[in-house]
Design goal:
Elements: H1 2-64, E1 70-74, E2 88-97, E3 100-110, E4 116-123, E5 128-136, H2 185-208
Antiparallel strand pairs: 1-2, 2-3, 3-4, 4-5
Length: about 210
């Protein structure tokens, strides 16, 4: 009787082990199929997403520096680190008109309340020609107002629109040289840091290429 019980137990254990193996194989097959599908989908959507991002960046470039006739790429890595060390230069271009360098455009990202990426245009005289947000992940209803085209300050301008025409030499200090967003002080200061770093890089770049 004991031998029969032992044999039965062994058979049950064997069956249980095989069931677990089959379950593992099924899960593995599903995982492989899912990864394959994701890779296929990404293969189709990846280039589309990249193209859309590039179109958005190109449109922002013309918005922040509409006077430019064409733009010349500059290696972002050659610009080195930004003054604060907390922001990242993603792209830099020289703006040209009449065959001469008339300014520059920079795409820079960094911390705000969360994170933001902006495009900044600046002419050779050190005046901001425009600012556009490419990304803003700050809190809805507060920090998100920084990039909201429907939100206006007391001066009637959008938050980012108020920077057009400002002299870089005056600096960017929330509540002093520009209007901060009520309830979003950290976002306002973060954007000020992006503008400070971005225009500093552009100033150095334009000085270097002043005779181009």
């Amino acid at each position: 009787m004991s031998g029969q019980t032992t044999a039965k137990t062994a058979a049950e254990n064997s069956g249980s082990a095989w069931s677990m193996i089959k379950l593992g194989l099924i899960l593995a097959a599903y995982a492989v199929a899912s990864c394959t599908m994701l890779a296929v989908v990404n293969g189709f959507t990846g280039p589309v997403i990249a193209a859309n991002q590039q179109r958005k960046a190109n449109a922002a470039m013309l918005t922040v520096f509409p006077q430019a006739e064409d733009f010349t790429d500059i290696d972002a890595a050659s610009c080195g680190s930004t003054p604060s060390g907390t922001t990242t230069v993603q792209a830099v271009k020289l703006a040209r008109a009449g065959g001469k360098v008339t300014g520059g455009v920079i795409q820079i990202s960094g911390p705000t309340y969360d994170h933001a990426t902006v495009m900044i245009g600046m002419d050779a005289a050190g005046t901001v020609t425009g600012v556009q947000f490419l990304e803003n992940t700050d809190s809805p209803g507060f920090g998100s107002k920084a990039s909201d085209p429907n939100f206006t300050l007391a001066n009637g301008k959008t938050f980012y629109g108020q920077f057009t025409g400002k002299k870089v030499a005056d600096g960017f200090t929330a509540g002093e040289t520009f209007d901060a967003i009520s309830g979003a002080t950290i976002t306002s200061r973060g954007v000020a840091n992006l503008l400070t770093d971005g225009t500093a890089v552009l100033t150095a770049l334009l000085k270097e290429h002043s005779n181009d």
